[in-house]
Amino acid sequence: MEDRKEFYIPKNFKADWEIAPGWGLKEIALFVPPALIDFLIIKYTGIPIKFKIIIFFVTIGLTFALIHLRPTRSNIHAFKHLKWRIDFFKRQRVFSYKKKGWKL
């Protein structure tokens, strides 16, 4: 049986329940791990407070950017594009080459 390539075709509408326009429960839930990491860093490390604030804004800002930015196509999140890019670079590659002196 042949493996067929799958395509992700976005719809023009979302069937998800949204808390704010473009922000569903899944997007809000993605803020929990960075917030937990920030809490642990702020509570249990001996880093000066100004570096803790910088770490907090960088992690929350990066999470917000990956969720909110929708590059290239309108209904696909940036983290979906990143997942596709990682999968692309992990796939097996086939390189064709010719040996010198051989006529093909």
Topology:
Blueprint: E1 18-20, E2 23-24, H1 25-29, H2 32-44, H3 49-68, H4 78-90
Antiparallel strand pairs: 1-2
Helix pairs in contact: 2-3
| Unreliable runs | none
Q: Write down the secondary-structure element order.
A: EEHHHH
SS elements, strand count: 2
Helical content band = 40-55%
Strand-residue proportion: under 5%
End-to-end C-alpha gap: 30 Å
The whole-angstrom Rg is 22 Å
C-alpha geometry:
flat
The major beta sheet can be summarized as:
2 strands, antiparallel
What value does the average pLDDT take?
Answer: 77
Strand order of the largest sheet: 1-2
Total helical elements: 4
Question: What do these coordinates show?
Answer:
- The chain is mostly helical.
- It has a domain at 23-90.
- The protein is 49% helix and 5% strand.
- Strands 1-2 form a two-stranded antiparallel sheet.
- A hairpin with a 2-residue loop joins strand 1 (18-20) and strand 2.
- Helix 2 (32-44) runs antiparallel to helix 3.
- The longest helix has 20 residues, at 49-68.
- The radius of gyration is 22 Å and the shape is flat.
- The two termini are 30 Å apart.
- The mean pLDDT is 77.
Characteristics:
4 helices; 2 strands; 104 residues; mainly alpha; two-stranded antiparallel ribbon
Task: Summarize, please.
With 104 residues, the chain is mainly α.
